[in-house]
Amino acid sequence: MQRISILLFLSVFCFAMAMQAQAPAPKPDPELKKLHVFVGHWTYEGEAKPGPLGPGGKFAGEYDGQMILGGFFFQGRWTEKGPTGETGGLEIDWYDPVNKNLVGNCYLSEGNRLPWVFTLAGNTYTFVGKFVTAGKQYQYKGTFTFAPGLASATLMEEISVDSKTWTPWRESQWTKSQPAPNK
Amino acid sequence: MQRISILLLVLVVCFATAMQAQAPAPKPDPALKKLHVLVGHWTEEGEYKPGPLGPGGKTTGVYTAQMILGGFFMQAEETEKGAMGETRSLEVYAYDPVNKNLTCNVYMSDGSTFSGVVTVSGNTLTWAGKSTVAGKQYLFRQPMIFAPDLMTATAKGEISVDGKTWTPFFEVEYTKAKPAPKK
Is the pTM of this model over 0.90? Predict the structure, then answer.
């Protein structure tokens, strides 16, 4: 009887291990497809308002977006020239299966990390988060509105200290690079 | 009198704007230097324990870390080959000025993520935080003990679902690639 029990236990254990080893590879959540609109090479230019985050002025930059790590994450990298010199950043966005939403982390060359949450409505993507600069915390809201062809967009960025009153910070026009024509 | 007031106001605005434009550029917090021990190219080999996160088995890999975005962040890329095939990950470290600690976010090619803090004590770096794997959250901790010459290290990862009972997850030995000798 003991032999049968041991044999049964070993069979179950081996089966469980085999099932675990053969478990289907996880797939990116379909929600992530909503970020595909950002994939590609973009150029942008705009103007910042003078305020607590700087003197304001015109800026222009380049942004590259791509899906990475098996399509589970979106990565954006950019460089920008503006009134405070050259800046840049790294953005990683993904689907949060616990809270069932799209979230991201934005790392800015000024030293700030900005975690945010996406909401989508039609052609408008809104990302809201918090960041700290010079020891003071700000709420951030970016509203990205795509034109019907999805090859150009307007980004309105606002800041707030209380989440109630929002102050315009930056406004920029984005244009996606067209792929080179086939020869 | 009114002219003097206007002149004074203009001077004050000009001075404030000039001060803002000349504000010293922010510098990376000195705490980030504690992460410099990870910077470089590492090879790794170790073993995962069978458990809820996989069948376990031996693993080998490479890990490359560098400071990015003006030294405000550290980025590391890791590729591991083991029983579950090849997994890749991207790690980004930052200094959190609010909580005054080092934070870490890990993004993995199976869609899992880690978010936590890194503490440093002597030759030991310890990661502690939450991992989300296949939609389920685990607590994760990993001390990484460096040899006195900082060229090798041992990392032992553990997971928990309740923060009380910890299960060994992996043990990995890291070896830093030596710089090529000068000719």
Answer: no
